[in-house]
Design goal:
With about 550 residues, the protein is α/β, with parallel strands linked by helices. It contains 18 helices and 13 strands.
């Protein structure tokens, strides 16, 4: 401070005042330039403090080359060629997704005459059995969280019983209101919520996360006067946080992770927090690598800097709360951490509830109020809803309640033991294959792994696909992951045998796998102009709606 004051004392303030009075226009221009330079310098300094000099320069170079490529794409001739190639890729995607089924009719208009029950059910049955990944025998990563045939029959019956119900009308369906409230309370109990803790059901983990972000943005605006909110998340946090940031028009800073553990760099996160930060995020566990961030450190940080802390336990759901009791190392990821202000938990994953159910929890009712939407001036009456949707399906909530009460704590405890032990056995098997290595420090049901060159990891993915396995591709770093479920448990040995054979196949002729998935994902992770990948991804979504 003494040096700063000494420097300021040497400034010729009188001369500056005279110059400004004589040259107001130029002085204004100089001041504007100085302001812009100062702002950019601060931004660059913050980036360096978070990512380090080398990574900052690498990101800057990627941004510059990305902008340059986008301009090149707009140039006559070049842009046409690039767009033609993108269109070709999108067409190939559409052709692979929208495959004509011989003998199967298309229904593109409402039939003039209603079809019979038998006709309808026959068509649905055929389409249900169209060729795909053999999920019933555990050959898919995650996706289907199956609690057993007996539980499926029960949840289907509960679903059918409540098929016409809607939580938007609690006066019409009072029993459904109790069911929903009990689902929330049971999940709060698993996450050590006290009497003040509360929550709501949502349609899934993405909506739970979006609601938690909204609550903290509104809290920041109303309590702290923050009009340009930002959130700080690990780079491994779920993409739903990016979706929320885009939807709400707020800033988002992605924090790097430790390359060995894949846990968020706590010091970098601390440096990223500023006066407009309303929320920091930790995962328990991350989707890519099944790693739990250092939540205790993040809790202390949230308290110190007076920001919210969201724990994303959508994937950890009904596994993390049972780890200690099941004999595994405990990971505290709940309201026992004093800095935690919200938690998301998917009941439709390891809770085995029907798809379309999740719970977002809050430290107190005030935080939950910031999630709500209310309007008292609408001509249709006073309107209030807890989440994004107005009308919601009561059937999935009833199915969720049925699954939770049928499984019970003992049922979930046993599933935790079985599935986590399955992940551990697969992880140990992967570690025995010299060409492979595990990415990060898995703590729950997910194991991620990559390969040593020249064996390409995406070549292995292609070989595993030939053997009927559908694994999830990862990037930054390139890897594959397997989310173990109840269906994976009996086929763990078969998975490891097929994996070993696939590695041997790729190792014997690595150059043969430079095309296929290796080319696609290798290109996606290195191309500077991400709008190219965005266009292809949009084309894929379009293809899903091609009838």
């Amino acid at each position: 401070m003494t040096q700063v004051m000494s420097t300021l004392a040497k400034v010729d303030w009188q001369g500056m005042a005279v110059y400004t009075a004589k040259n107001p226009k130029q002085a204004f221009i100089n001041a504007a330039i100085a302001y812009v330079v100062f702002r950019q310098t601060l931004k660059m300094a913050k980036r360096v403090s978070i990512y380090g000099l080398r990574s900052t320069l690498s990101l800057l170079w990627k941004q510059i080359t990305g902008v340059a490529l986008r301009h090149i794409r707009r140039a006559p001739g070049t842009g046409i060629v690039v767009q033609r190639n993108i269109s070709k890729i999108v067409k190939e995607i559409e052709d692979s997704v929208n495959v004509a089924v011989p003998g199967e009719s298309k229904y593109l208009t409402v039939p003039e005459q209603g079809m019979s029950d038998d006709e309808i059910l026959a068509i649905l049955k055929r389409r249900q059995n169209e060729a795909g990944v053999d999920w019933k025998n555990g050959r898919v990563s995650g996706a289907v969280y199956h609690g057993g045939e007996e539980l499926v029959r029960l949840t289907n019956e509960a679903y059918a019983m409540y098929n016409l119900t809607n939580p938007l009308h609690p006066g019409v369906f009072p029993g459904l209101r109790r069911i929903e409230a009990e689902v929330v309370r049971m999940v709060l109990d698993l996450y050590n919520g006290d009497a003040d803790c509360c929550g709501t059901t949502t349609s899934g983990g993405t909506e739970s996360i979006i609601m938690a972000v909204r609550s903290h943005v509104v809290w920041g605006r109303e309590i702290r006067g923050i009009n340009n909110a930002n959130i700080v998340v690990p780079v491994t946090a779920h993409a739903a946080f990016d979706k929320a940031a885009e939807y709400f028009g707020i800033g988002i800073t992605h924090i790097p992770v430790d390359p060995l553990t894949q846990k968020v760099d706590v010091n970098a996160m601390r440096r990223a927090i500023d006066s407009d930060t309303v929320l920091i995020v930790g995962s328990s566990a991350t989707f890519p690598h099944g790693v739990a961030d250092d939540l205790e450190a993040l809790s202390q940080m949230a308290i110190k800097y007076k920001v919210g802390l969201h724990v994303d336990s959508c994937l950890g759901s009904f596994v993390m709360p049972f780890l200690k009791e099941a004999g595994f190392p405990e990971i505290v990821c709940d309201f026992r951490l004093p800095g935690v202000t919200s938690i998301s938990c998917d009941t439709h994953k390891y809770g085995f509830a029907p798809k379309g159910t999740s719970v977002v929890m809050y430290r107190n009712k005030q935080m939950r109020h910031y999630q709500y939407f209310t309007i008292s001036t609408w001509p249709g009456g006073i309107y209030a809803s807890p989440t994004i949707a107005g009308s919601r399906s009561g059937a999935v909530i009833a199915g969720c309640w049925a699954a939770m009460t049928k499984m019970g704590r003992n049922g979930y405890l046993q599933q935790c033991k079985d599935i986590v032990n399955c992940r551990i056995s697969i992880q140990k098997g992967i570690e025995q294959i010299p060409e492979l290595y595990v990415v990060g420090e898995p703590s729950s049901t997910v194991v991620a792994f990559s390969s040593h060159e020249p064996v390409g990891i995406f070549g292995i993915m292609d070989e595993m696909k030939k053997r009927g396995w559908d694994l999830s591709p990862l990037q930054y770093p390139s890897a594959l992951h397997l989310a173990c479920t109840r269906l994976t448990v009996p086929v763990a040995g078969e998975f490891l045998r097929d994996l070993s054979d696939s590695v041997a196949q790729v190792k014997a002729s690595p150059e043969s796998y430079n095309k296929g998935s290796q080319a696609i994902y290798g290109f996606a992770s290195t191309v500077p102009d991400t709008t190219i990948i965005d266009e292809v991804a949009q084309g894929f979504i379009d293809a899903l709606y091609a009838a």
